[in-house]
Amino acid sequence: MSGLEHSTIPLDEFDATLRPFLTEVSSSSLGGTVLSCSDDFFASKDNLIKPSPSLSMKGQFGPNGALYDGWESRRHNPTFDWVIIRLATALTSLSHVDIDTSHFSGNECPASQVFALRLSSTEVENKNLKLSPKDPRWTEILGEVELGPNSRHIFKLGPKALEGAWSAVLVRMIPDGGMARFRAYGKPQAPALLDTLPHPSVEPLNLLSPLLSARIVACSDANFSPPGNLLLPGRGTDMSDGWETRRSQVNKGKYAPGGPLHGKERSEWVVARLAGTGTVSYVEVDTAYHPGNYPVACKVEAILSDKDLPGEEEKWTTIVDKKPLGAHRQHWFDRERTVSPTAVFSHVRLSIFPDGGLKRLRIFGHPLRPHTASAAPAVPILPALPLTPETFAPYGQVIQGFSFGSSAPKGKDVTIANQGTAFKFHRMANVQETYEPGALVRGGPYVGVTRAKKRLDISQGAQVTVTTLERHRHTNQAFIPMGKGVQPGGQALGEGGAYLAVAALNGPDDKPDMSTARAFLGTAAQGISYNMGVWHHSLLTVDGDLDYCLVEAQIGDWSVLDCEKHTPEEPYAIVQVPPYTASPGPKATSKGKPLANGHSTYEKLNGLVSSLPLVNGLNGHGPSGPTVPVPISREGFAPFGQVLHAYPDPETRYEGMDIQVAPDGMATKYARLAEIKSTYPEELGAVTGISVFRATPKVGLERGKVFDIRYMERHPYTSQAFVPMGKAEWKGKGEEKLDEGGQMLVIVAKGGPDDRPDPSTVEAFIMPSSVGISYNPGVWHHPSLILDHTLDLACIEAQISTGVPEGDERDCELLSWEEGEAFGQVSVPALA
Asked: What are phi and psi of 605, to 5 degrees?
């Protein structure tokens, strides 16, 4: 026996029973690459390993002749043409090949032959490696086989291919012609199994990676796209490269009376075999590109079994209980605390409810031998996972903007706002308090600012021991990272900044229930609001200093009514923080840097704006010239509302300011900078909440030009605060970072005797991204105007309606001058 024995497999049989459960180790979607070829004059060699089927390009021509979605060489080769493909994984067996000549008829390659080669460990590390067709290590794994036109040819390979460990293949076209696709299938080598769990600082592997030998073994339905896509790297390109089931209906199809699943909860499932055996630390479920067909919820179970497909009747362990999902987003779920961190599994089963589509499933853990004697750590280890609305939902709300309106958490209304310049994500969090009447002697819910110093560098990861948790029985508490522009009387904070949030629900003993404890790493583009009574660690700022907009109610006497703390004899947990560094900030400019004479850049900006050349030579506002914006300040904006920022310089603080310094001096709270006011009649049911505007620059609003004021609005019954949020991303783990920069142009006017804005009182302010404002109820102002770059604006206000299905005119009175003479003009300053 030569080991080259092969057999052909009918196409229908292969596609239905084998292909969905095989790993295509040559595919470009997994990382396969075409290194070189003898000739690709007519059609590129790179087409060979595309994941998509070959397309017909009949009737299309280029400079070299007819176009084909495949590889085609010149005519009249006396021997053969060749192509070398580096496989996606370092070492793999090879079980099947699919040689496809689709759309090549009369110019197809008449025959083919396949060789394979194993790279050395040194060569594996060389990503720019070149291989020669004359390398003596090439081993024949498929002898010369005949091919027909316009068809796929499936070959099951012999023992030599199946038992080997290969890194690359060489495919011959004999003697020349065209080949649409070449697909090699095999089983990559699994990672070496450990005898004991590694130190918690060792990052877990994706044990569901096909590059490590993980594969799908069964699924309930794959009507629209196959489950094997769940294991692919990256986040895909569109809805086609995920797993999507058909729609299901109550009492219809398999759920119909007399059907196999009648009376059962509607769900679909997929079973996958891990790369060897291992533990589970956490799970990632991605719904990218499934904005309207994502599942409502998911559940993940695991089992240790010698079978390729464990039975339904066997004992599966729930590692992620049923959890809600959102649209077009990644979700990270910690392992249920009831599951031992040393438990070893071989398979996972993902169930989705009731049906729908997912993009990716990833299981992170450590390869470990079954039945090892690894002891669970004495103190629980909590992985700090990316912050997402669904995973944080038991403890509160996540406050952030999204690139797609459809990505908002389920149940959150999204509208187009500000004359089409913004998405408004309504009521991402509500503002609530339950203090006894009369207890809040200093005022109700308010907006403040907390400046927090970096407590930890996590560029290489870190561990944080949790010894104390706290709760606020009578108020929710929101922290919203602010932008990093210049500030009145100060300088911009340095780059970076993120925060660690640790939360747990209350237990039956009125103490933290650590079985519910979870840890999250939030970026500077995400805020959080803790529900009343939720136990949590004080916010830990990492990576860089941050200013937070703070929304809460407080008596302010340091009593347990405001904040109750609990410190057990032994630590609650250890949080394992992964390596994180915020992406680089803006390119070097004079912005945010001290000047040589010691003045702040805010003072420099003030001088530049006040000396702007003006239309008609006027400096100020009035009927004879445009209004000139000035840098925003507490004093200048006082007739219209309050300015929100930190006051690190004691000389800039005003009399009566409520300043609270943390015991360790690492954080300073500037409380009650603005009261949250609502005078709606109670029967109207207005809700005070925190929304997010993803606000973009308005067409016609340009630096160095005059802007016509054609809209003014007011909110008669509520204050309205706008706070520019930070810009950041955790690369590959959530929303992409917005472009750096961005300021607000704030336009206000006093009311006239006719109960309309008085054009003679128009004032304008430039507001950097590190500063927020709060309009007093009834103040006339232009809808938010953004300069230069998109900003996420946290908005704290009361509303009767979110605008869905329709708005309520009592929330906002809008006046427009769309035709004819504008209400006023503003001279927009050019950038220095």
From this structure: -60, -40
Write the CB contacts of 185 (distance below 8 Å, at least 6 apart in sequence).
19, 22, 23, 24, 25, 94, 95, 96, 97, 98
Which whole-number Å values give the CA distances from 198 to 18, 74, 194, 275, in the listed order?
Answer: 36, 55, 8, 17
> According to CATH, what is the number of the domain 205-376?
2.60.120.260
Q: Judge whether 7-186 and 205-376 match in fold.
A: yes
CA distance 639 to 663: 36
H or E stretch including 391? helix 389-392
Which residue, chain included where needed, has tokens 């059609």?
Answer: 43
Neighbours of 507 (CB within 10 A): 13
Q: Is the pLDDT of residue 731 over 80?
A: yes
What is the reported pLDDT for 446? 98
What is the phi/psi pair of residue 816, to 5°? -135, 150
Burial string for 214-226 (b: 16+ CB within 10 Å, else e) reads: bbbbbbbbbebbb
Nearest to 715 by CA among 797, 805, 771: 797
Could you tell me the two tokens for 388?
């997402």
Query: In this predicted structure, what is the pLDDT of residue 78?
Result: 86
The tokens describing 581, both together, are 């560094």
- What DSSP character marks residue 586? S
- Please tell me whether residue 476 adopts helix, strand or coil conformation: coil
pLDDT band of 587, cuts 50, 70, 90: very low
Q: What is the pLDDT of residue 722?
A: 99
How confident is the model over 354-364, as pLDDT tens digits?
Answer: 999 999 999 99
Q: Which of 161, 272, 277 is nearest to 218 (CA)?
A: 272
Average pLDDT, whole number, for the chain? 92
The three-class DSSP label of residue 311 is coil
Q: How far apart are CA 59 and CA 423, in angstroms?
A: 45
| Helix (H) / strand (E) containing 634 | helix 634-637
- Give just the sign of the alpha carbon dihedral 366, 371, 377, 381: positive
With cut-offs at 50, 70 and 90, classify the pLDDT of residue 586. very low
Token pair in block for residue 144? 């010369």
Mean pLDDT (whole number) for 442-468: 95
Give residue 559's identity as a one-letter amino acid code. S
Rounded distance, CA 41 to CA 560, Å?
Answer: 79
Helix (H) or strand (E) holding 635: helix 634-637
How do residues 400-416 score in pLDDT, each as one tens digit? 999 999 999 999 999 99
Question: Which residue, among 279, 275, 295, has the nearest Cα to 287 in the 3D structure?
Answer: 295
Burial string for 453-481 (b: 16+ CB within 10 Å, else e) reads ebbeebeebbebebeebbbbebbbbbbbb
Structure tokens at 695: 């606000």
- Compute the C-alpha angle 475/479/485, nearest 5°: 150
Write the CATH number of the domain with boundaries 601-644+678-827.
2.60.120.480
Task: Confirm if 427 and 797 have CB atoms less than 8 A apart.
Answer: no
Question: What is the DSSP code (8-state) at residue 328?
Answer: T
Q: Classify 224 as helix, strand or coil.
A: coil
**In the CATH hierarchy, which fold is given to the domain comprising 396-577?**
Jelly Rolls (2.60.120)
- Residue 116 C-alpha from the chain's centroid: 40
Q: What is the pLDDT of residues 267-292, one digit of tens each?
A: 999 999 999 999 999 999 999 999 99
Among the listed residues 582, 342, 575, the one whose alpha carbon sits nearest the alpha carbon of residue 469:
575
Chain segment 187-196, per-residue pLDDT in tens: 999 999 998 8
* Residue whose C-alpha is closest to residue 446's, from 433, 456, 459: 433
The CA distances from residue 265 to 88, 351, 352, 799, in Å, are 39, 11, 11, 38
pLDDT of residue 264: 86
| Architecture category of domain 7-186 in CATH | Sandwich (2.60)
Question: Which of 191, 394, 218 lies closest to 277, judged by CA?
Answer: 191
Give me 234's structure tokens: 């990256």
Domain ranges of the chain: 7-186, 205-376, 396-577, 601-644+678-827
Task: Record the tokens describing residue 617, joined without a space.
Answer: 């030579």
